[in-house]
Amino acid sequence: MPPPVSQYFLQRWHTTPLPRLIDELAELCPDRPMVSLPWDNDHPVKGYRDYSIAEFAAAVNRAAWWIELQLGRAPTPFTTLHYVAPQDLSYFILTLAAVKTGYKTLTCHPSADVDTHLSLMEHTDCHLLLYPPCPNTAAIRKVNSIRALKSGLTALVTPTLDDWLSSTSPPVYPFPHDLASILHDPFTVIHSSASTGPAKPILFTHATVCLQPLGFGKIRDPSHVNYERWRGQRVGVLTPLSIAAGLFPFLAMNFCFDLTLVLPATSGPMSATLMDHLLVHGNVSACILGPKTLPDTCANPTYLSNLRRVRYLAIVGAPCQPYLAPLITAHAQITHIYGSSESGTLPAEVLPDPDDWAYLKLSPEVPHEYRPVCQSYHELVLLRRPHGAAQPVFAMFRDQDEYPMGDLFAPHPTRPDCWRYCGRRNDLIGSEQGLFLPRDMEWVLEAHPAVRWALICEERRGGLALLLDLIPDALEKGHAHDENIWDTLLPLIERANALCPIPAAIRRELVLFTDSVRPLPLSVKGNPQRVRSRELYRADIERVFGCADREGGVGMPLPSPSP
């Protein structure tokens, strides 16, 4: 019998680049399931169909031959192809096919606006646009806008995912390189989250991709590591596939842990309904997901009950909202996939007590430190150790010996090496009382059913200016009608004030509401950019602080319901 995929993979991964290694695995273990997709995107009740490593490898080779036929091999090394499509397996097929033919792909978060696409194309000197035939989708609307706005563009319609996965087996498209000879060559381009400004391209090399699973392979006792708990099982992936959170599970971690990755239907944006369909029909033991769909999941009794079908929900990209955790942990254990586009996924352990859902424990073999910043907050810093785990970031930043993650954590009161994520370093607000981090307070306020985002802007003389962004139809739904919103907001404001780490408080006269004329500037993840949001409402902030000083506290009017 052939060895398990993971055994062969880790033996060859040191010397063999991924596109070639997938062809080898297809020959060695042709029938091993690699991915599972719905039989019918519109009717998930029909169940899922497994695709083997051999079928996936054939799809990559078919795409590589297609690229060569349509474009020829890359005219200059690593020419950029921008691929825009619904979130499906074709992203990985095209990424690997592009590498085989001398190109590199550029892919964007599905929430990225057209300006972001155009900016990234400009930064990567990209003049080639690929997209599948997908009428009446958000992807094709972006494609049409890009084509209208960018001159000198070559645009090609690709075959569909079904075409790539057709039953015929094309010849293997040769990729004769060994890993050492191309280690620092480009592999693909994604982008930053744009939490503080425009999105920037992030270049992955073969070294970046290679070091990701090798770091997990160096853990001497991986029994507590989350991925090890899922070894050989079916794992749902509910993150966007065109960013790092989707890229990492599919391009190595699946082979490293013998996983079959299960994808939702691609009939629309990620939603609680698509998540529920996957849980009910996908036969998964764990799910990797961002937290965005969880409020809707928890609000639906059937969806919430169906969380019992999985053992683990692995949250990635942002923390689970604290007010949802008790509902979720009654059905499934929350764990974390932690890392960044630059660092890759770091080996994190599943904690024995489900009540510690908010805490992260990195494997002790990850070279890292938590360095004090202010109050109880510490910044996670990765350290270069050539033979250590979690080193992909130092393939990207080859002249650095340490890498600050920019994330702030607070220690567990009793468990050493367990840390709770509290926000980003750039979330810190300067005040007369010193630096403070407002995210714990904001999460409390965002538990209100009418509040989409809460941003504490700044502190003056013990008062905190608060900017509230209401859900667009909250007024019509009765969550926020005239003065009645204060009946439900004030208890949350009191709870938030109790968490304030400095002697200051939110006061009613310092509460501002956003308006439809000035929507909050968002990152590509969909969360507000704090500095830009604050500056957008700068005049209003100055006004409420001025009113508070002159009048001793005058309540701000609520927005009127839209006609």
From TrEMBL:
Pfam families, sorted: AMP-binding (PF00501), AMP-binding_C_3 (PF23562)
Keywords: Phosphopantetheine, Phosphoprotein
The AMP-dependent synthetase/ligase domain, residue ranges: 30-359
InterPro entries reported for this sequence: Adenylate-forming_Reductase, AMP-dep_synth/lig_dom, ANL_N_sf
SUPFAM superfamilies xrefs: Acetyl-CoA synthetase-like
Superkingdom of origin organism: Eukaryota
Protein name per UniProt: Acetyl-CoA synthetase-like protein
Source organism of this protein record: Aspergillus heteromorphus CBS 117.55
